[in-house]
Amino acid sequence: MSEDRQTRRHPQNLQGVLQLAVEAGSAAEGPAPPEPMSEERKTWLREALTELCKGQMDEVEQMKQCLAVLCKEGSERERGGEEEREDDDEDDERETAFEMLSELCENLDNARDLMTLGGLELCVSQYLNHAQSGLRWRAAQLIASCAQNMPQLQFHLLSIGALPKLLQLTDSDPNPTVRVKALYAVSCLVREQEAGLQAFLSHDGFSVLMRGMQSENEKLRTKSAFLLLNLLMSHPEQKDTLVAMGMVQQLVSVLRTPHSPVHEHVLGALCCLVEDFPQGLNDCRNPALGLEELLRQRSKELQGKEESQEELDFCERLRVMCFSRQQSDDTGMDR
């Protein structure tokens, strides 16, 4: 019994209460009791629902307060003396507001309410291009938090032009944290979202990922390659576009950089471009790339390293698809 109490989770909103009620009903054995709910039970349930609704309203009020902070019109910034300190305090206050909103919007109901309150438009129109990098990346992070697994919010963000701004930040922002957070938001808008993918393609999103994989920012390199792999697995019809833009050659050049976590995703992407796609296979077999020897050497380096097993699997699979089959084909031609 004590173990049940420790593992029991209290519902945080009305949706949680309903879920708890469903679970309780499913767990009950035998038919429902014939007697009606007691007045005491009714009172308890009414009070519990009232408290939960009040809590939800309190969170909406917190979001309104945060948005009020973010909506403050700042005067022209003249750096120096007291004005500089006031500006710094204002930035700190706004950063705190963003952090609170991101935490609140982990709740899907709150994320939806933020959209209704105009918070997402504020992020896109004023903060994605803000002069302060700490505010830019926090705005991108909030957009990502709201967009995850929320088609309604994804469509809304796409309709107000969030994606091209996020791609631009990913591609060229001088702050590395902004670039990583912006790419995270891009991922939340395009993965498993057809409208998002089409917008991504229309803004040359694959080129942004290609440049991201060539960046000196290790996190950006890894996350760019991971998103490319994910999109290829979900949308194999994009192979033709990627091979035509020289993606095979670019990926092999990334493999020649000092070993890092990005290589696992790059090898996975190459496997996708080769599988059931002759043009990708021909590109990989091009002797000028020297891919066969590179894969042979990489396999030797990864042998016996448990933490690199998935990368080794991709490496061996790519070798088999590209070069074992080629040897078989050549042997058949000789005969």
From TrEMBL:
GO MF term set: adenyl-nucleotide exchange factor activity
**Region ranges (Disordered):** 75-94
Q: Where is the composition biased (Acidic residues)?
A: 83-94
Record-linked InterPro entries: ARM-like (IPR011989), ARM-type_fold (IPR016024), Hsp70_NEF-Inhibitors (IPR050693), Nucleotide_exch_fac_Fes1 (IPR013918)
- An example Gene Ontology cellular component term from the record? endoplasmic reticulum
**Top-level division of the source organism's lineage:** Eukaryota
Residues spanning the membrane: none
Tell me any Pfam family this protein matches.
Answer: Fes1
- Give the matching SUPFAM superfamilies: ARM repeat
UniProt keywords (A-Z) are: Phosphoprotein, Repeat
**Which part of the chain is the Nucleotide exchange factor Fes1 domain?**
14-114
On subunit structure and binding partners, the annotation says: Interacts with the ATP-binding domain of HSPA1A. Detected in a ternary complex containing STUB1, HSPA1A and HSPBP1. Interacts with PGLYRP1; this interaction blocks the cytotoxic activity of the PGLYRP1-HSPA1A complex.
Q: What is this protein called?
A: Hsp70-binding protein 1
